[in-house]
Amino acid sequence: MSIYDISREQDYVKNSGGILGENELRSPSQLHSLVEETETRFISEKIFETVSLSSDSLFQRAVSILHTSYLDSASEHGFQYSQVTLVKNDIFLNEYKTFYQEKKASNYTHEELQETYGFLLFETENQAKLVCQRGLCVGSSAITTLGDPGKGVYISKYSDYLHARPWYHGKSGYVVIFNLIKGRVKFVSENYTTNYTSPSSGYDCHVAVNTNKFSHKTSHFRTFELNQYYLYELSGSTVIERPRQICPYVIVAFQYREPKKMAAPAHNHKSKLELKEDVLIYPWKGKLIIQGCLMCDITLWSSYGILVPKQLPHELDFKYVMKVSSLKNRLPEAAFRKQNYVEHKGLFRCHGVE
Fold it and tell me: Is residue 236 left, alpha or beta, with left meaning phi > 0 and alpha meaning psi from -120 to 50?
């Protein structure tokens, strides 16, 4: 993760309202006002139906949607799903169908009208149910890169990249799966200014022009940021508060358990993040702290083994910063040779360096 990414992630945390507490990053759709409403507004259980885990095919279908929507194949070994709740909001469903018919009458192509899925993460079941009851409305996101959050909504493309920070062992929550129609899509450059990009007339969705320019080396935050849909609906010059092309489908409860290593892909199926056939595992994962401030989560990836020359604490707390040129004067030249870190025999070559 670059310093630029870290700075944007900190801004994202600051702007998100702290819905999950000081050490937790809220999901894009969770604002502080939404939590207050959850505690005071009545949630109608008439539109929700809990599905039996053992007998209902809907549970299997919901889990299948989540699995096939992973960006990283290793996610299949990390997420455990325990409850599925069907959303039966007839108002939203009818509006969703009406949107489809109107766009079909406007000569939208089959591809533009094709139904897909989007995902949002919530900390509590009540927060998830409230959005399913009132709808996903403009002004509900802290993301700003693809369009003005006051004129549209953001929703994640992949079911395993739902917030800006990496998953950690024991994390639990609720994922809402939405049916959505992207409609006419415009690729836009990411905008990091406060002069937000407005919805584009004649289109229904913005996606990042760099949406496919990421790899396993890209930071979690950056990957999350690049894989958002920005959806909106215009009536002339008027912004519709709740875009009709998004309809809540099911709520799925989950818990995340840290997999021991990334799964080797099947012969005919590779992870979308994997660039070569080597199986990557991580010998260490932890947090980067600079002068008491949490900057980001770090994962060391390796294709050679799980051993490291020196055991590292879970939190790396740095108090001082040194230029690389100064560091080269203090450490042996061998410490900066790339081949010492990409060959088996070089794994412990710098073990004695303090």
Answer: left
